[in-house]
Fold:
Amino acid sequence: MYIKMRFPNGVSKTLTLSYDDGPDADVRFMSIMSKNGLKGTFNLNSSMFLGDGYSRQRADDMKKLYIDSQNEVACHGVYHPKLEKLPLPTMIHEILNDRENLEKEFDTIVRGMAYPYGSYDANVLQALRLCGICYSRTVCSTGDLRIPDNWLELAPTCHHDDSRLWDITDRFLKAEGDIDPMLFYVWGHTYEFDRHDNWERFEDFAAKIGNRDDVWYATNIQIYDYIEGFKRLSFSADSKIVHNPNSFKVWFSADGKIVDLEPGETKRI
Ligand SMILES: [Zn+2]
Structure:
């Protein structure tokens, strides 16, 4: 039997955004996101966000926007260093304290990260595992829409200024039928839209790809958790009995037919 993961409501495609450093331009960006139903993750340096260089009032205002928009907040190093260049205890501090600071500030659990400058080494990967980080985004665009298998070296599909953006968007939107699940993952910094005076690029992208019922719009951690949940399904050897041990609903296609499983449900398919 051909079993293929499907996202919530049985759709085959998901889109997520990942934007770094917490600049003021995140405000305008989030308003375009919410108009078009998009979701994503904002990677923050807790030192800059919560103190150095910015006022408490600004932090409170930004915090409210990230929370109210139901986007995810993730780590980006306390001080945005190249992590692999640091002494080991300092490197671990940069990860774990950023996590702790953001968790206290946002009153939530933070399990995601984007590498400052996109750089890391084997020690950083090990530190992430020990600090309970589930995924960390690099800056190596793949142009690819496949589901990643190495979440600690999570390579995005493309940067928003990538010349392939519109081609990939068309490929993503046109795909239909019993396809393999697709993840379109776009990253960048929102201040780049001011710098390059090209906000219309994101407005056009969001209008084209947003508010569709064949795409699941989700944060990075929602996609990670959903995919891990799909992997936890128990199938009988002949794939005809399946059990969902998760606390959330899971969808897949079985020989092209959509199956959904309630939390805790066992089903014969
Ligand atoms: Zn950064």
The longest strand covers residues 13-20. The chain has two domains: 3-230, 234-268. The pocket of zinc ion is lined by residues 20-21, 76, 80, 116 (CB under 6 Å).
